[in-house]
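ok so i was messing around last nite and threw this chain in just to see what happens. nothing serious, just curious
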Amino acid sequence: MTNEEFVELACPHSWFLVADDLHLQAVELRQRFGRGHLTHIDHRSKIKVSWDNANRSTFLLASFALENSIKAFLVYENPGWISNGTLAKNLRSHELTDLAKMSTNIPYKEKGKKTLRAFEEGNESWARYPCALKKEDSAQPLILNEELWDRYEHLMAAYGRRLIHLLSTPWKGPHGFRARYEIKGNYLGASR
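result:
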């Protein structure tokens, strides 16, 4: 693969499309909530905690959708981050709040922090693995309730609207790559 071919794979539009694929799957799983649940009963305190059996996978897919959409903004703003056949170190993080801080075009930079922080919390721990690398970083699963889900959908739609607008203007990437995209339909929950 040439550097030019790599740029086409890693361009902002590609991050946008992967974000949309992940978002669609998260939405699909979220619609399955209520079909089954798990209850943990603490043998010491007898406290019961219940969550939907689709909670973990929905949460993880939504987290990855957020990550890919944020990276679409970052690549759009920093084309050099996908040059010479490699992704820059800045794109190798899963820390949603840190990634969002680096973007100048991302909507709801301050207002979205709470939502990003919630999804970031499980990204390296309970949503992806049974535990984190260390007990200090491990946490119990977060319940993906209606309020958090509504905040997620609102944020994704805002990301979608902004990315659709940005991608409709000519983008110049490294190694002579240039592109503009006409996007029609519903992407990231934003209709165009």
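not much to say yet. The two ends are 34 Å apart (CA to CA).
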